[in-house]
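P.,

For your records, the input lines for the assembly:
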Amino acid sequence: TQLLEQSPQFLSIQEGENLTVYCNSSSVFSSLQWYRQEPGEGPVLLVTVVTGGEVKKLKRLTFQFGDARKDSSLHITAAQPGDTGLYLCAGALSSGGGADGLTFGKGTHLIIQP
Amino acid sequence: NAGVMQNPRHLVRRRGQEARLRCSPMKGHSHVYWYRQLPEEGLKFMVYLQKENIIDESGMPKERFSAEFPKEGPSILRIQQVVRGDSAAYFCASSETRNTEAFFGQGTRLTVV
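C-alpha cells returned:
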C-alpha cells in the first residue's frame, strides 16, 4: 500500500512569516499534485510536479519534487491570512493531471493569524 | 462554465436506508472519479468511470456500494443499507481526458443516524 505522510499535521503562524510543509513517501510516484481545501469545499488543484528535482512557483508558493520522486515540499513566503486552509498532497501513478487512483496524504492544516 | 455539481450537499439517512449521491461533471468532461473523505482521514479513491463504463473500481467496497455514469445524466454513487461507518464526505471530480486536470465538486456530506 502506498502511503503519503504529510508534516506537520497542524501549523499556526503569524502573517508575514515563511513556512514549509512536507509530503513524504517510501514509494515512487510518476507525478505529485498539491491541493488546497477550505472547510465545506472540495480540493482545488494548485500544481502538478512531474520531473524529479522539479521546482514550480505560483506567486508566493514554491513547490519542489524530490530527485527520487518520493517526496515533495511546499514553501510559502510571507504568508497571508488568505493562505489559511488544508493543504493536501496526492501521488499519481500517471504523469498527467487526472484523478485516477490518487493516493492522498492526510494534509497539513495551516492557519495564518493576522 | 459551471464547475462540477454535486447534490445533495448534505444527506441524512437512517441505518439500513439507501443513499444516492449525484455528480454532474463539467461541460465537456467525460471522466468522473469518486473519492471518500472520512473524518480525520485523507481522501480515498473509490472509482473511476468514463461514460457508461467503469474503468477502475479498485477502491470500492465489495458490498453495498455501486457507481454508474450513464450516457445521459449525472454519475450516481449508490450506497445500499447504509451503516454509521458510511458517514463521510463524498467528492466527485471530473476531467476532459484521463491525463488532464481534474476538478473536484463541493462534495456531499452523508450522515447516517
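Two observations worth noting. The mean pLDDT of chain B is 94. The radius of gyration of chain B is 13 Å.

Regards
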